[in-house]
Write the C-alpha coordinates for this entry.
Amino acid sequence: AYQKDLGSGAPFAEKHQQLLLNEGLPQLFIDGNRLDRAQVRQRLQKIFFESIADSNAYKKATETAIKQLSALARSEQISINGSINAALFLGELRNKQGQLLTTASQPLSEIASDNSVTPSVRIAALTGLGKRARALKASVGDTKPSEAERILTALSTTLSLSAEAVSPIGRDWIQGQALNISSDMLAVMDESPQELEGIVKNATTILNDSIRPIDLRIRAVVFLANSTRAGITLQPNEILPVAEELVKESLRDAYGIIQDK
Protein backbone atom coordinates (compact mmCIF):
# COMPACT_ATOMS: atom_id res chain seq x y z
CA ALA A 1 0.00 0.00 0.00
CA TYR A 2 2.84 2.39 0.86
CA GLN A 3 4.81 2.06 -2.37
CA LYS A 4 1.69 1.76 -4.56
CA ASP A 5 0.03 4.85 -3.08
CA LEU A 6 3.04 7.14 -2.90
CA GLY A 7 4.52 5.89 -6.18
CA SER A 8 1.35 7.05 -7.94
CA GLY A 9 1.66 10.56 -6.53
CA ALA A 10 -0.62 10.31 -3.49
CA PRO A 11 0.02 12.64 -0.53
CA PHE A 12 1.80 11.36 2.56
CA ALA A 13 -1.16 10.53 4.79
CA GLU A 14 -1.54 9.28 8.36
CA LYS A 15 -1.59 5.64 7.25
CA HIS A 16 1.71 6.10 5.43
CA GLN A 17 3.24 7.74 8.48
CA GLN A 18 2.20 4.81 10.65
CA LEU A 19 3.65 2.33 8.17
CA LEU A 20 6.95 4.22 8.17
CA LEU A 21 7.06 4.51 11.97
CA ASN A 22 5.73 1.05 12.86
CA GLU A 23 6.88 -1.15 9.98
CA GLY A 24 9.82 0.59 8.34
CA LEU A 25 12.10 2.25 10.87
CA PRO A 26 11.84 -0.57 13.46
CA GLN A 27 13.82 -2.68 10.97
CA LEU A 28 16.84 -0.71 12.18
CA PHE A 29 16.78 -2.26 15.64
CA ILE A 30 15.32 -5.73 15.12
CA ASP A 31 17.83 -8.30 16.42
CA GLY A 32 17.54 -10.39 13.27
CA ASN A 33 18.91 -7.51 11.21
CA ARG A 34 21.90 -6.86 13.47
CA LEU A 35 24.48 -8.33 11.06
CA ASP A 36 22.87 -6.76 7.99
CA ARG A 37 22.83 -3.09 9.01
CA ALA A 38 23.98 -1.43 5.79
CA GLN A 39 21.67 -3.53 3.61
CA VAL A 40 18.72 -2.78 5.88
CA ARG A 41 19.33 0.97 5.58
CA GLN A 42 19.60 0.68 1.79
CA ARG A 43 16.31 -1.22 1.61
CA LEU A 44 14.55 1.34 3.78
CA GLN A 45 15.80 4.19 1.60
CA LYS A 46 14.59 2.43 -1.54
CA ILE A 47 11.20 1.26 -0.26
CA PHE A 48 10.12 4.14 1.97
CA PHE A 49 11.69 7.13 0.22
CA GLU A 50 12.84 6.51 -3.33
CA SER A 51 9.41 5.13 -4.21
CA ILE A 52 7.69 8.48 -3.45
CA ALA A 53 6.69 10.43 -6.55
CA ASP A 54 5.35 13.68 -5.05
CA SER A 55 7.86 16.21 -3.68
CA ASN A 56 5.64 17.35 -0.80
CA ALA A 57 5.00 13.75 0.20
CA TYR A 58 8.75 13.10 0.12
CA LYS A 59 9.37 16.12 2.34
CA LYS A 60 6.80 14.98 4.90
CA ALA A 61 8.20 11.44 4.92
CA THR A 62 11.74 12.65 5.56
CA GLU A 63 10.56 15.07 8.26
CA THR A 64 8.82 12.20 10.01
CA ALA A 65 11.91 10.02 9.69
CA ILE A 66 14.30 12.69 11.01
CA LYS A 67 12.22 13.22 14.14
CA GLN A 68 11.92 9.49 14.85
CA LEU A 69 15.54 8.65 14.03
CA SER A 70 16.74 11.39 16.37
CA ALA A 71 14.64 9.86 19.14
CA LEU A 72 15.84 6.32 18.38
CA ALA A 73 19.48 7.44 18.47
CA ARG A 74 18.92 8.62 22.05
CA SER A 75 16.56 5.85 23.13
CA GLU A 76 17.41 3.56 26.04
CA GLN A 77 14.52 1.28 25.09
CA ILE A 78 16.34 -0.28 22.14
CA SER A 79 19.79 -1.82 21.78
CA ILE A 80 22.94 0.25 21.29
CA ASN A 81 23.22 -1.42 17.90
CA GLY A 82 19.77 -0.09 17.00
CA SER A 83 20.64 3.43 18.14
CA ILE A 84 23.87 3.35 16.11
CA ASN A 85 21.92 2.21 13.06
CA ALA A 86 19.36 4.98 13.55
CA ALA A 87 22.11 7.62 13.73
CA LEU A 88 23.82 6.19 10.64
CA PHE A 89 20.54 6.20 8.68
CA LEU A 90 19.85 9.77 9.78
CA GLY A 91 23.20 10.73 8.27
CA GLU A 92 22.42 8.90 5.02
CA LEU A 93 18.96 10.35 4.29
CA ARG A 94 18.82 12.13 0.95
CA ASN A 95 16.49 14.57 -0.74
CA LYS A 96 14.62 13.82 -3.93
CA GLN A 97 17.58 15.03 -5.99
CA GLY A 98 19.88 12.50 -4.30
CA GLN A 99 21.74 15.01 -2.12
CA LEU A 100 22.26 14.55 1.60
CA LEU A 101 19.39 16.11 3.55
CA THR A 102 20.41 19.44 5.04
CA THR A 103 17.53 19.19 7.52
CA ALA A 104 19.26 16.21 9.14
CA SER A 105 22.46 18.16 9.86
CA GLN A 106 21.23 19.95 12.98
CA PRO A 107 19.99 16.80 14.77
CA LEU A 108 23.23 15.03 13.81
CA SER A 109 25.22 17.91 15.31
CA GLU A 110 23.14 17.80 18.49
CA ILE A 111 23.57 14.03 18.89
CA ALA A 112 27.33 14.25 18.28
CA SER A 113 27.62 17.04 20.87
CA ASP A 114 25.45 15.45 23.58
CA ASN A 115 27.41 13.99 26.50
CA SER A 116 24.38 11.95 27.57
CA VAL A 117 24.50 9.96 24.33
CA THR A 118 26.61 6.79 24.19
CA PRO A 119 30.00 7.46 22.48
CA SER A 120 29.42 4.87 19.74
CA VAL A 121 26.17 6.61 18.76
CA ARG A 122 27.92 10.00 18.79
CA ILE A 123 30.56 8.57 16.45
CA ALA A 124 27.77 7.34 14.13
CA ALA A 125 26.37 10.89 14.08
CA LEU A 126 29.85 12.25 13.33
CA THR A 127 30.01 9.83 10.40
CA GLY A 128 26.98 11.59 8.93
CA LEU A 129 28.57 14.99 9.52
CA GLY A 130 31.75 13.72 7.86
CA LYS A 131 29.76 12.82 4.73
CA ARG A 132 28.38 16.35 4.71
CA ALA A 133 31.83 17.90 5.14
CA ARG A 134 33.11 15.98 2.12
CA ALA A 135 30.03 16.93 0.08
CA LEU A 136 30.42 20.60 1.01
CA LYS A 137 33.91 20.69 -0.49
CA ALA A 138 32.36 20.40 -3.95
CA SER A 139 29.16 22.34 -3.32
CA VAL A 140 27.97 25.90 -3.82
CA GLY A 141 24.78 27.62 -2.73
CA ASP A 142 23.01 29.51 0.00
CA THR A 143 22.89 26.55 2.41
CA LYS A 144 26.66 26.02 2.50
CA PRO A 145 27.47 28.52 5.31
CA SER A 146 24.72 27.24 7.62
CA GLU A 147 25.68 23.63 6.93
CA ALA A 148 29.30 24.40 7.70
CA GLU A 149 28.34 26.17 10.92
CA ARG A 150 26.39 23.12 12.16
CA ILE A 151 29.35 20.86 11.49
CA LEU A 152 31.88 23.24 13.08
CA THR A 153 29.73 23.54 16.20
CA ALA A 154 29.80 19.78 16.72
CA LEU A 155 33.54 19.60 16.03
CA SER A 156 34.32 22.37 18.51
CA THR A 157 32.21 20.70 21.19
CA THR A 158 33.66 17.24 20.74
CA LEU A 159 37.27 18.39 20.51
CA SER A 160 36.94 20.29 23.78
CA LEU A 161 35.51 17.29 25.68
CA SER A 162 36.86 17.10 29.20
CA ALA A 163 38.24 13.89 30.67
CA GLU A 164 35.25 13.71 32.99
CA ALA A 165 32.63 14.04 30.23
CA VAL A 166 32.87 10.53 28.79
CA SER A 167 34.96 7.38 29.17
CA PRO A 168 38.62 7.71 28.12
CA ILE A 169 38.25 5.32 25.19
CA GLY A 170 35.01 6.97 24.07
CA ARG A 171 36.64 10.38 24.23
CA ASP A 172 39.59 9.19 22.14
CA TRP A 173 37.33 7.68 19.47
CA ILE A 174 35.07 10.72 19.27
CA GLN A 175 37.95 13.17 19.03
CA GLY A 176 39.83 11.06 16.49
CA GLN A 177 36.78 11.15 14.22
CA ALA A 178 36.34 14.88 14.81
CA LEU A 179 39.96 15.60 13.85
CA ASN A 180 39.54 13.72 10.57
CA ILE A 181 36.44 15.76 9.72
CA SER A 182 38.20 18.97 10.74
CA SER A 183 40.81 18.42 8.03
CA ASP A 184 38.00 18.19 5.45
CA MET A 185 36.45 21.38 6.81
CA LEU A 186 39.67 23.30 6.09
CA ALA A 187 38.91 22.92 2.39
CA VAL A 188 35.27 23.91 2.93
CA MET A 189 36.26 27.07 4.82
CA ASP A 190 39.05 28.07 2.45
CA GLU A 191 37.78 31.66 2.26
CA SER A 192 37.37 32.04 6.03
CA PRO A 193 39.82 29.62 7.72
CA GLN A 194 39.75 31.76 10.86
CA GLU A 195 36.43 30.07 11.66
CA LEU A 196 38.49 27.01 12.63
CA GLU A 197 40.80 28.78 15.05
CA GLY A 198 38.95 27.32 18.04
CA ILE A 199 39.38 23.85 16.60
CA VAL A 200 43.09 24.57 16.02
CA LYS A 201 43.41 25.51 19.69
CA ASN A 202 41.72 22.27 20.77
CA ALA A 203 43.91 20.21 18.45
CA THR A 204 47.01 21.89 19.92
CA THR A 205 45.82 20.99 23.41
CA ILE A 206 45.40 17.35 22.37
CA LEU A 207 48.86 17.32 20.79
CA ASN A 208 50.49 18.69 23.93
CA ASP A 209 48.77 16.25 26.27
CA SER A 210 51.35 13.48 26.72
CA ILE A 211 48.85 11.07 28.31
CA ARG A 212 46.66 10.98 25.20
CA PRO A 213 47.19 8.08 22.73
CA ILE A 214 49.92 8.52 20.15
CA ASP A 215 47.61 7.87 17.19
CA LEU A 216 45.20 10.57 18.37
CA ARG A 217 48.02 13.08 18.80
CA ILE A 218 49.32 12.22 15.31
CA ARG A 219 45.86 13.00 13.90
CA ALA A 220 46.14 16.36 15.65
CA VAL A 221 49.53 16.92 13.97
CA VAL A 222 48.04 16.08 10.55
CA PHE A 223 45.18 18.52 11.07
CA LEU A 224 47.53 21.27 12.29
CA ALA A 225 49.84 20.75 9.32
CA ASN A 226 46.86 21.00 6.97
CA SER A 227 45.69 24.14 8.75
CA THR A 228 48.94 25.96 7.98
CA ARG A 229 48.47 25.18 4.30
CA ALA A 230 44.96 26.64 4.59
CA GLY A 231 46.41 29.92 5.80
CA ILE A 232 46.04 29.59 9.57
CA THR A 233 49.03 30.92 11.53
CA LEU A 234 50.34 28.66 14.28
CA GLN A 235 52.87 29.21 17.04
CA PRO A 236 55.82 27.01 15.96
CA ASN A 237 57.26 26.80 19.46
CA GLU A 238 54.00 25.23 20.65
CA ILE A 239 53.83 22.68 17.86
CA LEU A 240 57.18 21.69 16.34
CA PRO A 241 59.09 20.40 19.41
CA VAL A 242 56.14 18.27 20.52
CA ALA A 243 55.48 17.00 17.01
CA GLU A 244 59.16 16.07 16.56
CA GLU A 245 59.21 14.16 19.84
CA LEU A 246 55.96 12.43 18.94
CA VAL A 247 57.41 11.21 15.64
CA LYS A 248 60.47 9.87 17.47
CA GLU A 249 58.26 8.11 19.99
CA SER A 250 56.18 6.57 17.21
CA LEU A 251 59.31 5.29 15.48
CA ARG A 252 60.62 3.85 18.74
CA ASP A 253 57.34 2.02 19.28
CA ALA A 254 57.31 0.72 15.70
CA TYR A 255 60.93 -0.45 16.02
CA GLY A 256 60.08 -2.20 19.28
CA ILE A 257 57.22 -4.08 17.62
CA ILE A 258 59.51 -5.16 14.77
CA GLN A 259 62.12 -6.31 17.27
CA ASP A 260 59.52 -8.33 19.16
CA LYS A 261 58.57 -10.11 15.98
